[in-house]
Amino acid sequence: MRCSIAARRWPPRPRPLFDEAQLVELTDGSIAKVLGPDYAEADSYPIRTRMPSPPYMFASRITALSAQPGKLEPCFIEWEYDLHPDAWYVSDGLVPAFVSLEASHAMIVAFTYIGCDQLFKGQLRYRAVDSQTTVYGPLPKAGEVLRGRVNIKSFLKVGKNVLIAYEYLCYVGDRLSFKLEANSGFFLPKDIEKSKGVNTAPYLKAGQPAEPFQPPLRCGRASFDNSHIEALQRGDFVACFGDAAYAASRAPRLYAPAAKMLDRVVSISASGGAFGLGEAVAERDIDPSHWVFRAHFKNDPVMPGTFLVEGCEQLVKFYLCYLGLYSLPGMVPHALSPHSYSAKFRGEVKCEADTLRYRLTCKSIHCDYQADGQLERMALVFLAEIIYRGNVIGMCDNLGAGFSRAPAAADASAPALTAIEA
After folding, report:
1. How far apart are CA 200 and CA 342, in angstroms?
2. Cβ neighbours of residue 228 under 8 Å, at least 6 residues apart?
3. How far apart, in whole angstroms, are the C-alpha atoms of residue 108 and residue 266?
4. pLDDT for the residue numbered 2
5. What was the pLDDT predicted at 245?
6. Which pairing describes strands 279-286 and 354-369: parallel, antiparallel, or unpaired?
7. Domains and CATH numbers, the chain
8. Nearest-CA neighbor of 180 among 150, 200, 156, 201?
9. Phi and psi dihedrals of 26, rounded to 5?
10. C or N: which end of the chain has fewer Cβ atoms within 10 Å?
11. pLDDT of residue 4
12. Which of 35, 37, 50 is nearest to 117 (CA)?
């Protein structure tokens, strides 16, 4: 089941197969009430196949579905999501990447329709494994309609577990924004617990020695507490970094308030890390009462992988501010495209009080200059490790950020990061 990466001509909007109210019922209520009495058995299992609950449900309607009840075979599902300008996640008019990426969980409706809960007798739990994403253009923005299609390529039984290979294509109108190739699956809880984490050592092996990068600004602070982060969130660069040289910096806020995933930066250096191009380590305190555990998933609470990646992206944004890149006159932040990056998860963050840690390593910084010596464009690439209870449970490789000199009419509000599904 192949799909071109070119622009797709979507048919006129059909009457949805399932509307938003039905999706909420499937997720938080009764499957049988929507799909009929043949699915009553699934309702008897407290832990079953569910999309994330609102407000972490990013699907407004299902528009097409080829899955067949009782058959674990290739199929597709299509949906739409209305990105309201006043949604809780919108900050400075921007929609963070985790929304578009988490929207892929609309495909869980296909698993529900197939009857995976009946097939697995409620014994298996759905989890993400890894992904490779290629960005072709801007991510969906507030006020637009996201159109998604997941092509489920295969189901593979490994013991009692089931591995799933799929691709997710995210469109805005007829334009393809990004494509994600991924693996997920249904797993026994004991097998989830046995995961030994991700070995990131091969990703941190430096090749050619990197040419030293001289950041526009140098900050004397090597760590930052929550008050510094909150100051930067307010746009007060001087209060955060303690130097008047940062006064001219302007940047979008780090996060929407309900999506904050950064409490402190415990260490940071513009010349540290395996490549000598910089390293930052940050933490987020895990609060079991956080709203996201009630949404992801009902009766099976774990921190969403996309929220963990959002924490990595917030640290990247902080690091870009720390380097003084937002102080460069005439330089516009943007997503790198076309650009590919990957994510891998071998563990989960539980609904228990603890501390999550991120370690960000800058892998490369590429700069192009005009004939007069002015910076024309730059691209930064990072490896982010997600550390929980002493293990690297997740990794995002090739997170990218770009800045370019652009005409005054250019859109300076474009997000500076690309993002990954988990």
Report:
1. 13
2. 221, 239, 240, 241, 265
3. 38
4. 42
5. 95
6. antiparallel
7. 20-193 (3.10.129.10), 201-205+215-405 (3.10.129.10)
8. 150
9. -60, -35
10. N
11. 47
12. 50
Reported confidence tier of residue 419, pLDDT bands at 50, 70, 90: very low
Pairing of strands 375-388, 354-369: antiparallel
Residue 73's identity, in one-letter code, is: E
Distance CA 49, CA 398 (A): 31
CA 55-25-66 angle, to 5 degrees, is 100
| Side chain identity at residue 411, one-letter code | D
Catalytic center residues = 296
Mapping DSSP to helix (H, G, I), strand (E, B) and coil, where does residue 22 land?
A: helix
Alpha-carbon span 94 to 88, nearest angstrom = 11
How confident is the model over 80-97, as pLDDT tens digits? 999 999 999 999 989 999
Please give the share of the chain, as a percent, with pLDDT higher than 70.
Answer: 92
Structure tokens at 417: 């990061």
For the stretch 65-72, contacts whose Cβ atoms lie closer than 8 Å and that sit 24 or more positions apart, written own/partner, are 65/17, 65/109, 65/110, 65/113, 67/110, 67/113, 67/114, 67/152, 68/114, 69/38, 69/113, 69/114, 69/115, 70/114, 70/115, 70/119, 71/114, 72/114, 72/116, 72/119, 72/155, 72/162
pLDDT score for 3:
44
Q: Please tell me the predicted confidence (pLDDT) of residue 409.
A: 42
8 Å CB contact between 309 and 98 = yes
Per-residue model confidence as pLDDT tens digits over 180-196: 999 999 999 999 999 88
The helix or strand, by DSSP H or E, that contains position 241, with its residue range, turns out to be: helix 237-241
pLDDT at 12: 67
Residues 6+ apart with CB under 8 A from 64: 14, 17, 76, 77, 78
Neighbours of 145 (CB within 10 A): 14
Q: What is the pLDDT of residue 411?
A: 43
Q: Residue 284: what pLDDT?
A: 98
**DSSP 3-state assignment of 238?**
helix
**pTM, two decimal places:** 0.93
The string of pLDDT tens digits covering residues 95-122 is 999 999 999 999 999 999 999 999 999 9
Concatenate the DSSP letters of all residues of 128-185 into one string: EEEEEEEE-SPPP-TTSEEEEEEEEEEEEEETTEEEEEEEEEEEETTEEEEEEEEEEE
The tokens 């253009």 sit on which residue?
137
pLDDT (tens digit per residue) in 191-248: 999 988 999 999 998 666 677 889 999 999 999 999 999 999 999 999 999 999 999 9
